[in-house]
Each structure stands twice: as C-alpha cells, then as structure tokens.
Amino acid sequence: MTSTPQNGQINHWLNWSAAELALTLEENNKEAEWLLSSLLNCSKSELYLQEGELSLLQCTQFQNWINKRLAGEPAQYIAGWTEFYGRRFNVNPAVLIPRPETERLVDVAIHTLQELAQPQIVDIGTGSGCIAISIADEIPAAKVLGLDIFPNALSVAEENAAINNISNVEFLQSDFLQFFPPEPIYDGLLMNPPYIPNNEMDTLTKEVFDFEPALALTDEKDGLTFYKHLSATAKKWVKPGGWLILEVGLGGHPQKAADCFLSSDFTNIELIPDFNTNDRILKIQIV
Q1: Which fold has domain 10-71?
Q2: Which of 8, 12, 28, 129 could lock 157 by a disulfide, CB 3.0 to 4.6 Å apart?
C-alpha cells in the first residue's frame, strides 16, 4: 500500500491510484487515468491540463473508487459509464458492460441493412441499449425496437437513448423465449444472447463472475438456448429476404450455434470473424 496523498493535487492522486492498482492490474496507469478523468468529467488529455485540485469530497470519493476497483468491481460500474461505438453509455449492474467485440455485430448490421429504405430492426436482449442505439444512430431511416425481459435494464437503455439524443429507437419489456409478433415485420433481428455454457461460468474472471448479471452471460444450460429457439421461430420475426445477425462465443461455440440453424434447414449461413480472426458473428438470411 502506498501512502494516501495529503493534498488535492491531481498528479499526486493519479500517481497514487496507479501505484495502488498496480497491485492487481496490468493496465494500472490506463485505468487510473480513466477513473480520475471520469471523476472530473474530463478527457484523459484534459486530465493533465487541470490546474485546480480535488476537493476533500472528491478525494474521499476517488479513494473509495480505487478501493472498489481493487476489490474487483469493474471500472465501468464504478464510474457509471463506458464507451461503445464512439458513444457514451451509462451502465450499472443491471446490464452487461458493452464489449469491444460486440462492435463487430454493429459493423455487420450496418453493412447489411443500411441500404434498405426504412428498415425495421429488432434487438433481442437489448440490455444497455448499446446495439439498438448505435444502429438507430448510424441508420437514421431505421426504426429500431429493443426488447429485454428486465425492467431495470430497459430503464438504462431508455436513459442511454436520451443522452445520445436518439429518437428512432423504442424499448419494450418482453420475454423472447415466450413471445413472437403476430406476423414477420422485421428486416433485421440482432441478438447478443447469454451464450456462456453453465459449466464454463467458473472460468470467468472475478470481475465478470461477481459483478455482471449472470442471466446476461449464461442461459444456465449449454449456451445454445436462444439460438435453438430462434432457429424455430425466426420466420415469425423476420420477413423473407431479411437477416439474423447474432453474436457467438469462442472455441467450438460458433459452429454449434450455426448447427442449430443448419439442422432447421436454413441455408444462407455465414460465420464472420472479428479483427482477431475469431468467428464471432453468425449471419443468416431468411428465405
């Protein structure tokens, strides 16, 4: 443990926090900068140009934040926000923290759907709304609906739509495994479902296992529940010519997810790699 700064000088608190976080984190300097700039509501570059000092209240709060981070709580939950696809999204333990790999799903969805005149798009298990809101912003002509079973998650999504000034997205509480629309109206169905098999949950890092919502991570079975269900109901959601664009896991999971649709006689199926050459997106056309 390093001694706590006895004044409010920003560089002292930055150095102290980096030293504290070095006990458990490799990217200690990066996280120290991110947390302190979040506390001061400034960019990382602006952090080094600050001329004032932390107030006593800010010193206490920042020390508390560092203690929480040392206990394993994700920095995004501590600060209450993260960045996804160049936008700010508020997060709390009611929602999964948006991952960089999920930006690949947004890339594929934009490329696939942006040329349609007024695409109708549904995002299943919307959580923070990061996918639905990013798509709605990138395709202004689209009408996007985000569905989630949890009211607390929908509150976060609605808050994020407001802070990003997005008006062409709506959110609705619904249980995907129990509901489908009366007729297929969507051009695209996007989904980042809980796909971690229950027997692999104990392989997760402490900060994921202890702090992120378990039901957003695992289906408590084999990690394929949502893919199997969608393979049986996709044509009730998406009209002919439309697309399913789904995130998949690592290892053997992508092929297992694809097999759910192959066994249901879908033919236009593609696994798309991320920038690390891992297959992470499953894209299927409805015919």
Answers
A1: Helicase, Ruva Protein; domain 3 (1.10.8)
A2: 129
